[in-house]
Design brief:
Layout: E1 2-12, E2 16-19, H1 20-26, H2 31-38, E3 42-45, H3 54-69, E4 78-82, H4 93-100, E5 108-111, H5 117-131, E6 136-143, H6 156-159, E7 165-175, E8 181-189, E9 197-198, H7 212-216, E10 223-224, H8 226-248, E11 257-260, H9 265-275, H10 286-289, H11 296-306, E12 316-323, E13 327-334
Parallel strand pairs: 4-5, 4-6, 11-12
Antiparallel strand pairs: 1-7, 2-3, 6-7, 8-13, 9-10, 12-13
Helix pairs in contact: 3-4, 8-9
The structure holds coenzyme A.
């Protein structure tokens, strides 16, 4: 039976570091508040000049992932691009990346599952591989949040959390009887919570789609019911992780590393405690990058591999996340 194997990973974070102290020059916040509530120390933003988009960050991450896989762009059967901050409204960033890779007809699919983009993307890629529709797939999760944030005090609860960045993963179907690849998945969405974290305008359901009042009323910036999102995350992450463990017939002791979405260090600390995980079995890098949404899990995975934090062979990893939608889920993956 065909199993989906990770062949290469890459990440790209823009060079411009924005510290908590930098933010406090523009809004009423402080390094102490941000560290205490979120664990974030700094994040990366794209340069002020140059019109850098999600596809540009994705391209840099992709070059590294392709190189590690030993692939050229022409080897790809499909590109899956996850972002909530596409370069332009349409066409999708997947098409823009495909062009930047010099490809002329490779299919490109954009998905909009926000912080769970990697989880949905992995399951979609696995389904394509198992059905025989594609065998070599590139997944990219990439975000440019910085150009869409309210950097005044009005937007401080959201703005301090988010950062720009991209992660890329090369995925390949391999015929094997070994118990490797995706061992279990559990994905969910509950649109009842759509307004817990959303960006409302411009919107096709509004007529006109964009007005000066929308700027003045800050409806062009993301809004978040932070407490509600926090409560949902600390409940659902352990719940859905237990579901995938049960499905795979594993216990948490069988997992070499938990790689959660990086939304808030405190959320991940609650999650760690609920799962009874020692410090060395859960990975966090939100301190350096903030929340890079669809980029977060693949960036973290790339760092876990680079820092050799998991065994070289047969490492079993649990990915979990919750984000806007709300969408949430978990995946257990075993390396070959
Ligand atoms: N700096 C300083 N003060 C801030 C602030 C900031 N950046 N943002 C909000 N505050 C203020 C609030 O205005 C409020 O002031 P008040 O008490 O005078 O009204 C006070 O801090 C407490 O706000 P509250 O929203 O209750 O704080 P909190 O403890 O819930 O922390 C979050 C806020 C956003 C850090 C937290 O709710 C959170 O992380 N939630 C999850 C968000 C998330 O994960 N989002 C991404 C999902 S993928």
């Amino acid at each position: 039976m065909k199993k989906m194997m990770i062949r290469g990973t890459g990440r790209y974070l823009p060079e411009r570091v924005v510290t908590n102290d930098d933010l406090s020059q523009w809004m009423d916040t402080s390094d102490e508040w941000i560290r205490q509530r979120t664990g974030i120390e700094e994040r990366r933003w794209i340069p002020e000049e140059g019109n850098v988009g999600a596809a540009d960050l994705g391209l840099e991450a992709t070059k590294i992932a392709l190189d590690r896989a030993g692939w050229t762009p022409e080897d790809l059967d499909l590109i899956i691009f996850a972002t909530l901050s596409p370069d332009i409204n349409f066409p999708g960033s997947g098409c823009l990346l495909q062009s930047k890779l010099g490809l002329k007809s490779t299919p490109a699919l954009d998905i909009r599952q926000q912080c769970t983009g990697f989880l949905y993307g992995m399951e979609i890629a696995d389904a394509y591989i198992k059905s025989g529709y594609a065998n070599r797939i590139l997944f990219v999760g990439s975000e440019v949040h910085s150009t869409g944030l309210d950097i005044s005090t009005r937007g401080r609860d959201v703005t301090v959390i988010f950062g720009d960045g991209a992660g890329a993963v090369c995925l390949e179907g391999v015929e094997t009887d070994e118990n490797v690849g995706i061992l279990a998945t559990s994905l969910h969405a509950q649109g009842d919570y759509a307004d817990a974290l959303m960006l409302e305008a411009p919107a096709s359901r509004l007529s006109p789609r964009l007005t000066k009042e929308m700027f003045d009323d800050a409806r062009i910036y993301p809004t978040m019911d932070g407490r509600n999102v926090f409560k949902l995350a600390v409940k659902r992450l352990p719940e859905v992780s237990q579901v995938v463990l049960d499905k795979a017939g594993l216990t948490i002791e069988d997992i070499d590393m938990v790689i959660p979405h990086q939304a808030n260090l405190r959320i991940n600390q609650f999650f760690q405690k609920s799962m009874n995980l020692p410090d060395e079995k859960i990975f966090n890098n939100i301190q350096k990058y903030g929340n890079t949404t669809a980029g977060s899990i693949p960036i973290a995975l790339d760092e876990v591999i680079e820092q050799k934090l998991i065994p070289e062979k047969k490492a079993t990893v649990l990915f979990a996340g919750l984000g806007a939608g709300v969408t949430w889920g978990a995946i257990i993956y075993r390396f070959g």
